[in-house]
Design brief:
The protein is an alpha+beta fold. Helices cover about 45% and strands about 20% of the residues.
Length: about 850
């Protein structure tokens, strides 16, 4: 397939400008406005070039096989053209407008944020009750508020029209304390009569609900805040205070005026900037917006009709809920870093605006340059990101790439930017091209790390890095230390640096540790020990493959014959284990391909891991070792075993390659260099053909991915029969373990049955499998059941598996039985004494007495059995 993976970096407007501003202030003591716009942007570009190269190096180190010749940046020249072109198209179509609107204001970065850029936290606060004097009387109306400082911008008090408590007050005026402003008492259905006192202050310029009330009642909009979060001249004597300081000052002054009623504890949701983590302030300002109403039907239709499939499907409901509640998108940001809004304003006539998207200014501006200025704001980063599928393929030009690759095939991203990015890309793709930019979106979870902390009088104190490492490695937590899984945060110390994991455990182990996480879960709890686990797998894979290679090409003995391999498998020489492993290879390949098609990467990787480690290495390789070493079978059979080893290793390398590309590529190249292909026969069996075809490729990354094959000569019943053999092996191993027989010590094994002759014949026919996996001296089969006093036995289906106690262990067993006999004899004496006690018999409940009698009977029988064994 022709596949295209374009790498790119995002300019991350707010985050990047914040970091660089902080860095410049630390180095020079200067803030943004101490530089010219061009000087400041040059500093950001320098920073961007340095960190972009780091990001690219990291992505390469993880093993992303992107087309690096196509590397793009959201503010490169081509992106700039795309962004301006689409802006003008939206502007000319009347979908972009400018207006005064209540926005989410980040006072730390001094910019507006879209609704979905605001996170919400439950915080404990206060609900303050104040009395407002009613003009012309000695009465008051009591309001309740969670934000006392905003009373400086109040332009009304509102009550519910049906609230009988305030019917007589509607239409009257109050004298607003502190600022001495006269404001009306109005009736509005938005007011909840059960909240607080049922009377609410209305601050249209600083609250979303009040904003709508202000519009409905034609109230004044008084902005009391400066862009950096301080009280402006509307606050009178409080001018210059921060909003938090103003809150304390207002409460203090209201109290001094005798208007304070009470303050009660109150939990409420607080908006937080997802970038700076500053508390969001609703703020009335002039911004640029996209009218989203016309986009809603298409956005819903795309998902509802399956034009865009969200994976997992459970995201559909949340997506639809978000679309239903979509408000106009605020796309302007009060930053310098970003795509500057291509609008020019006339200095004296605010209604005159020109949208300019190329370097050549129109005559109006060129002829009268002093009369015009370009808009100072930049576009929201997500605006340019929304165009990414178009931009990277060359839009607005009708490029060959646009023709070949639009729409793209798949988007994989975190669920947290479903609305920031995914929905907006769909929207822009439909608008510009009439077609969604991708048919499928796989949404994966977010990685959480484990935090450890102690609680003190000064609050929470997170544990040191040294302590965290010990706890991560399994050291028990002291009672004073608490832990929980949380979203990764440097301040909490629960961040796992992937590059450190690569240095410690290798890239392949790091990738496997991540890929095998349950990627569709919303929360992925990632433990450092997981990387250690997959380091072991990487070592196992390497060592298992090296063993096969050494067997194929031994230093002594007959090497693997590629000429023989070129003739394909001789199925008449294959044993049960050969059919079994080829069957399992087929089933594993089918399962992995299914899970990859469904984007269940964790399940695909886990199945691949289990097949190689448990089925291939632990079973098949161990079973065939006697044949490989010449202890069993002839050279013809040995060559067939080597072919199967070659096929399974070749397929395993290719199956695991997407998950662990470095080890697999190294081993693939080893196969190619060690085993040059001769001329093959006209037709090979599909297993041999698959391996043969793969080695025609220059590298594993471009070799065909394994698919399930059809081979009529393969015995498909073997897999079921082999399960029985595996169970017998497990049974013998467990018995030996219970008898505490050293794994290196051979034992006799007797397998008997009176009914299951077919199963007995199967085990008998494949006894070489048992002998290759277990240290067995003599293996006997019998259709009669006999007594074996010095032996342990277990049952599987109709089979009885018996292991006589080896002579070396008989003396040890005799000592164990004598100790056991002493213990049982004491128990018998104790129980007899209890039953011969008349007081016990009379006073104890009947069921207790009966329980003692049963225990005595069991102990006596046990004593007889032990004596029998000792004799």
């Amino acid at each position: 397939y022709e596949a295209l993976w374009i790498p790119g970096t995002d300019h991350a407007g707010i985050a990047t400008q914040t970091v660089v501003e902080r860095k410049l202030f630390e180095e020079t003591g200067k803030r943004r406005f101490d530089f010219s716009r061009e000087e400041f942007l040059s500093h950001i570009f320098t920073w961007k070039d340095e960190y972009e190269s780091r990001i690219i190096d990291q992505i390469k180190k993880v093993g992303a096989s992107c087309d690096w010749s196509r590397l793009r940046f959201t503010m490169d020249e081509k992106s700039n053209i795309s962004v301006k072109t689409l802006f003008k198209k939206l502007y000319d179509d009347g979908l972009i407008y400018q207006g005064d609107y209540l926005v989410n204001w980040d006072t730390a970065t001094e910019t507006a944020l879209a609704d979905d850029e605001v996170e919400h936290e439950e915080r404990q606060g206060k609900l303050w009750h104040f009395k407002y004097p009613i003009k012309g009387s000695d009465k008051f109306i009591t309001i309740a508020t969670t934000r006392p400082e905003t009373m400086l911008g109040d332009t009304a008090v509102a009550v519910n029209p049906d609230d009988e408590r305030y019917q007589a007050y509607i239409g009257k005026e109050i004298s607003l304390p502190i600022v001495n402003r006269t404001i009306p008492i109005i009736a509005d259905w938005h007011v909840d009569p059960t909240f607080g006192t049922g009377a609410v202050k209305v601050t249209p310029a600083h609250d979303p609900n009040d904003y709508q009330i202000g519009l409905d009642h034609n109230l004044p909009f008084i902005n009391i805040m400066t862009p950096n979060g301080k009280i402006n001249e509307e606050g009178g004597s409080l001018q210059g205070l921060t909003m938090r300081e103003a809150r304390e000052a207002v409460v203090k002054e209201i109290t001094s005026l005798g208007l304070f009623v009470m303050a009660e504890d109150h939990t409420h949701r607080v908006g937080i900037s997802y970038r700076s983590k500053a508390v969001i302030e609703p703020y009335l300002s002039k911004q640029w917006f996209i009218n989203m109403e016309s986009f809603k039907p298409q956005l819903k239709e795309c998902v509802a009709e399956g034009k865009v499939r969200l994976i997992p499907k459970s995201w559909d409901n949340l997506y639809n809920h978000w679309i239903d509640n979509l408000r106009d998108w605020c796309i302007s940001r009060q930053l310098w870093w970003g795509h500057r809004i291509p609008i020019w304003h006339h200095k004296t006539d605010p209604d005159q605006k020109l949208c300019v998207i190329n370097d050549e200014l129109p005559n109006e501006i060129r002829n009268h340059p002093d009369d015009w200025y370009q808009d100072e704001d930049v576009l929201d980063t997500w605006f340019s990101s929304a165009l990414w599928p178009l931009t990277v393929l060359g839009w607005p030009d009708k490029t060959a790439d646009m023709k070949s690759f639009y729409p793209t095939s798949l988007l994989i991203t975190g669920y947290d930017i479903l609305f920031f990015w995914v929905a907006r890309m769909i929207m822009m793709g439909m608008y510009a091209m009439g077609e969604a930019p991708f048919p499928e979106v796989f949404l994966h979870g977010l990685i959480f790390g484990k935090s450890y902390w102690r609680e003190s009088e000064n609050g929470v104190k997170y544990c040191s890095e040294e302590e965290r490492e010990k706890f991560d490695e399994g050291e028990p937590l002291p009672k004073s230390v608490h832990s929980k899984w949380e979203k990764m945060s440097k301040s909490k110390g629960n961040v796992i640096d992937v590059l450190n994991m690569i240095d410690s455990f290798g890239t392949d182990a790091t990738r496997m540790a991540l890929i095998t996480c349950p990627v569709s879960s919303r929360q992925i709890d990632l433990d450092r020990r997981r990387f250690e686990e997959f380091k072991h797998f990487a070592n196992k894979f390497w060592n298992g493959a090296r063993f096969v290679l050494m067997s194929l090409h031994p230093e002594e003995g007959t090497p693997f014959s590629m000429e023989s391999f070129a003739q394909g498998l001789n199925f008449s020489l294959l044993d049960s284990e050969d059919h079994w492993i080829l069957n399992n290879l087929n089933q594993t390949t089918e399962c992995i391909n299914y899970h990859l098609d469904e984007y269940q990467f964790d399940q695909a990787a886990n199945i691949a891991t289990e097949f190689f480690w448990d089925q291939f290495c632990a079973w098949y390789v161990e079973i065939v070792k006697p044949v490989l070493y010449g202890k069993l079978g002839d050279e013809a059979k040995r060559q067939e075993k080597l072919k199967v080893l070659f096929i399974v290793l070749n397929n395993s390398i290719r199956l695991i390659h997407p998950f662990a590309p470095f080890i697999t590529e190294e081993l693939f190249q080893e196969l190619k260099s060690r085993f040059p292909l001769p001329t093959k026969s006209d037709e090979l069996d599909p297993f041999s053909q698959s391996a043969w075809d793969s080695l025609q490729s220059d590298a594993c990354v471009v070799a065909p991915y394994p698919l399930k094959v059809l081979e009529p000569r393969l015995d498909h019943q073997i897999s079921t029969l082999f399960n029985d053999l595996q169970e017998v092996v497990y049974l013998i191993r467990n018995l030996r373990g219970e008898m505490k027989i050293n794994p290196s010590l051979p034992t006799d094994v007797i397998i008997e049955t009176t009914k299951g002759k077919e199963l007995l014949d199967l085990v008998n026919k494949n006894q070489h499998i048992l002998k290759s996996l277990i240290r067995i001296d003599n293996l006997q089969f019998s259709t009669k059941e006999t007594d074996h006093p010095l032996a342990s036995f277990a049952l599987y289906k109709e089979l009885k598996v018996v292991i006589p106690l080896p002579e070396e262990l008989q003396e040890r067993e005799k000592m164990r039985l004598q100790k056991e006999l002493e213990r049982v004899q004491k128990e018998v004496q104790s129980l007899k004494a209890k039953l011969s006690n008349d007081s016990f018999i009379e006073r104890a409940p009947p069921q207790i007495v009966e329980k003692v009698r049963i225990s005595l009977k069991e102990a006596v029988e046990s004593e007889k059995a032990i004596n029998s064994k000792l004799s």
